[in-house]
């Protein structure tokens, strides 16, 4: 479409070029900008932007959440899960009817923890000698030893630790935090996942499942290319500037 001088407007160009994808992108950006500031009383109205920052139910004391998950890390009975009976039963054999998601008869042997445990702090929590410095401040740490899983498979246990379900994928803990609190920076991903490779259960561990896709984590790979497919294909920065200017 051209005007009386035979010229095409930028709006026409966005509607026609690449099947109109430029106009779609512009409409989406404009809609996000309008939705970020809902009309009326902002204290009572929920913003329509799914990533807009929200006021939590309780006043927060933490300004960031860092969740560390060590795939293949040290055993729980060597770190924080004190099992005194393992010291007494060291070397004894047990028969398991299921092992690594396989049914049958399996003879296995009990092994005592590699470090001793001793009570620490005023609470008297038994802490492994592997963590002498942490043991000195254990009264300031929340230690939960009530977690359990119905499967002995690493993939299902990993999925349960991140989503609460070992069988069916559910939104990850990070997705729920994003859904509940939003973010103050609309130009950054909802939350970041720093991992050289995906753990057991793969990207489901930071997925959003039935929540909006904007709440899923962004996988960042440490190294020369932290975000795949973001590096420009041109090798000359001046050439890229010329292309952008055009």
Q: Quick gist of this model?
A:
This protein has 246 residues and is α+β, with helices and mostly antiparallel strands.
Question: Can you tell me about this structure?
Answer:
This protein is an alpha+beta fold. The chain has a domain at 150-246. The chain is built from 7 helices and 6 strands. The chain has helices spanning 10-16, 21-35, 84-88, 132-135, 154-163, 173-181, 237-245; strands spanning 93-99, 102-109, 117-120, 125-128, 192-194, 218-220. The mean pLDDT is 82.
Question: Could you give the topology of this structure?
Answer:
Layout: H1 10-16, H2 21-35, H3 84-88, E1 93-99, E2 102-109, E3 117-120, E4 125-128, H4 132-135, H5 154-163, H6 173-181, E5 192-194, E6 218-220, H7 237-245
Parallel strand pairs: 5-6
Antiparallel strand pairs: 1-2, 3-4
Helix pairs in contact: 1-2
Features:
246 residues; two-stranded antiparallel sheet; 7 helices
Anisotropy-based shape = elongated
**Compute the gyration radius: what is it?**
26 Å
Report the β-strand fraction as a percent range: 5-15%
Strand order of the largest sheet: 1-2
Could you give the distance between the termini? 21 Å
Task: Give the helix level as a range of percent.
Answer: 10-25%
Which residues sit in consecutive blocks of at least 5 with pLDDT less than 50?
A: none
| Number of H- or I-type helical stretches | 7
């Amino acid at each position: 479409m051209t005007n009386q001088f035979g010229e095409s407007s930028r709006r026409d160009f966005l509607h026609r070029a690449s099947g109109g994808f430029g106009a779609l992108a512009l409409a989406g950006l404009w809609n996000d900008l309008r939705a970020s500031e809902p009309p009326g009383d902002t204290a009572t109205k929920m913003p329509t932007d799914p990533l807009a920052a929200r006021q939590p139910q309780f006043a927060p004391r933490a300004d960031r959440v860092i969740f560390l998950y060590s795939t293949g890390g040290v055993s729980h009975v060597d770190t924080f899960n004190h099992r005194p009976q393992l010291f007494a039963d060291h070397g004894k054999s047990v028969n398991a009817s299921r092992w690594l998601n396989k049914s049958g008869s399996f003879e296995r042997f009990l092994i005592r923890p590699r470090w001793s445990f001793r009570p620490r702090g005023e609470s008297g929590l038994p802490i492994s000698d592997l963590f002498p410095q942490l043991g000195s401040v254990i009264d300031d740490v929340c230690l939960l030893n009530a977690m359990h899983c119905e499967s002995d498979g690493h993939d299902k246990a990993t999925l349960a630790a991140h989503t609460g379900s070992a069988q069916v994928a559910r939104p990850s803990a990070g997705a729920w935090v994003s859904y509940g609190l939003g973010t103050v920076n609309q130009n950054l991903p909802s939350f970041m996942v720093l991992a050289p490779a995906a753990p057991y259960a793969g990207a489901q561990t930071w997925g959003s499942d039935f929540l909006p896709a904007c709440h899923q984590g962004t996988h960042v790979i440490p190294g020369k290319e932290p975000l795949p497919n973001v590096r420009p294909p041109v090798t000359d920065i001046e050439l890229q500037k010329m292309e952008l200017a055009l």
